[in-house]
Amino acid sequence: MNLPAPDSAVRPPQRPWTLLLYLMLALISLPFLLPIVWMLLSSLKSSAAIFGNPFQLTAGDLRLQNFADVFSNYPFARQYLNSLSILLITVPVTLLLSALAGYGFARLRFPGRDAAFLLTLTAMMVPSEMTAVPQFLIFKTLGLTNTHIPIVVLQVFSATGALAVFLMRQHFITLPRELDEAGRVDGLGYWGVFWHLLLPLSRPALATVAIFALLNSWNDYFNPLIYLNDERLMTLPLALQRFTDPLGGVYWNLTLTAGVLVALPVLAAFLLAQKQFIESLAASGTKG
Amino acid sequence: MLPYALGMLVFVLGPLIAVLAISLTNWSLLDTPKYVGAANYLKLASDRDFLSSLAVTGFFTLGILLLNITAALVLANLMNLRLPGIGAFRTVVFSPVVMPVVAWALVWKFLLQPQGPINTALQGSGMPDANLLFAPGTALGTVIVIEVLKSVGLNAVIFLSALQGLPREVLEASRLDGANRWQTYTRVILPLISPTFFLVFVITLIGALKVFTPIWVLTGGGPSNATTTLLVYMYKQGFGFFDFGYASVIAAVLFVLILVTTVLQWNLRRRLVFYEE
């Protein structure tokens, strides 16, 4: 009997089919790729030219001026900095809190643990938009509206935060308990076991949490919409909708240019770290 | 543990209870809340816009679930082919996932404008009134497709990792038993990846019930409420009309919906998910 070599990857079909397959893959790629490519091309055009042939790019309409306009006529640099600083605070805080809580749920026994975990699962399901009104009142009472504090706090304790705790708990459960015991024998306390033994083994899970926290912080639209009125405090997702003329007409070329500037760092980071990115997602995504 | 628990209590559990309390009042945030008992809840039953938003939420969630999971499974199998350059395909499908939500929505909003490129092209090919995003009949479907294109890459990658983690021996045994490709797929591979299937199902379901930003940016809930989901309706009532009592009732309904689906999921998981150990 002549068995084909077993392999988890599906073997490619015979030659004439390969070409057809590539054609199919290319066709499927179009709706994913075209909007991004088109956005890049349009960011270089004048407001009028983007309504013409979408993929025509003549030297005549090449407008790097858009990039200058975005920064000189609007507080876009400031808004960029706002988004960036919020991100740089939110991600590490989320990582630390979710790892600690995940460790607690996975390893410690205390009364009310299961109820608390159920609450975490609930928080994962509940849209942060739903609790917006009471949250708004809390921050209004504290006099913190129109600051970045609610944006950071709500991001950390949002559904994303709860998902982070869930992922970290699932991860810690997969680590062998003997590690804890060995650590205990060596004289480590709960904190020592967590910090010196378990955390160093958690890089894929931490990476996944960091990715989700990063994307959600960079994308947060609803909370800034509610808390920020001052244009100079606004973050990028809000800023993208403010390239309008006094009558409310949209300057599409500037909007798309700004869109490129918002998307580019994330896309670039993804392209550079693509392999680790997908692997860490995969590593923590499959253990239910 | 403690800081997280405190935060959850103050910023999630507390507000959740507060929402239920506010739902029993009439309140515009500026005046003092007036206790009205179940009046807001009674108003729901006769509110056509609410019933329509409930239906839109249902269609949207079902549409996303069906389209996203089917597409993700197909894409994952394509990504799993051993072809030179398949990495490029994976990257392309995944790249919208890392696009900022608002940027992705704005690009599509532009592409689908009445005089934008897609409608112009459709009109050129003989479809006179193709106005996919701004016609009541097609708006919801269009929003669903845009949202699936944005997020299907994540599910596809999760499925891909499950496919690649399949134990070889089992697949080999199935071939030895004379199973054809289809049988192997439905009887062996699908049960083996059912935990992943469950995970993807849960993530997608919750995500669909919670969608706000893409809809708000793309259509603002229009045309004529065609894309107004519960959450969009809640936002309009609360932060649009300052009727926070009524907004809180809608929030409570959404919460019950989410709770019910969560309980259903856990039961389904017991029955349908196959675990190796």
TrEMBL record, chain A:
GO terms for cellular component: plasma membrane. It comes from the Bacteria. Residues 80-273 form the ABC transmembrane type-1 domain. PROSITE patterns: ABC_TM1. It holds the Pfam family BPD_transp_1. It is a multi-pass membrane protein. Its main location: membrane. Keywords: Cell membrane, Membrane, Transmembrane, Transmembrane helix, Transport. The keyword Cell membrane applies. The chain crosses the membrane at residues 20-41, 80-103, 115-137, 149-167, 188-215, 250-273. GO terms for biological process: transmembrane transport. InterPro entries: MetI-like, MetI-like_sf. Belongs to the binding-protein-dependent transport system permease family. PANTHER family: ABC TRANSPORTER PERMEASE PROTEIN MG189-RELATED, ABC TRANSPORTER PERMEASE PROTEIN MG189-RELATED-RELATED. This is Sn-glycerol-3-phosphate transport system permease protein UgpE. It comes from Deinococcus aquiradiocola. The gene is ugpE.
TrEMBL record, chain B:
One of its GO terms (cellular component) is plasma membrane. It holds the Pfam family BPD_transp_1. Keywords: Cell membrane, Membrane, Transmembrane, Transmembrane helix, Transport. It comes from Deinococcus aquiradiocola. The keyword Membrane applies. Belongs to the binding-protein-dependent transport system permease family. Residues 50-265 form the ABC transmembrane type-1 domain. It is a multi-pass membrane protein. The chain crosses the membrane at residues 7-30, 50-76, 88-112, 132-163, 184-209, 244-264. PANTHER family: ABC TRANSPORTER PERMEASE PROTEIN, DIACETYLCHITOBIOSE UPTAKE SYSTEM PERMEASE PROTEIN NGCF. It is found in: Cell membrane. This is Sugar ABC transporter permease. GO terms for biological process: transmembrane transport. InterPro entries: ABC_transporter_permease, MetI-like, MetI-like_sf.
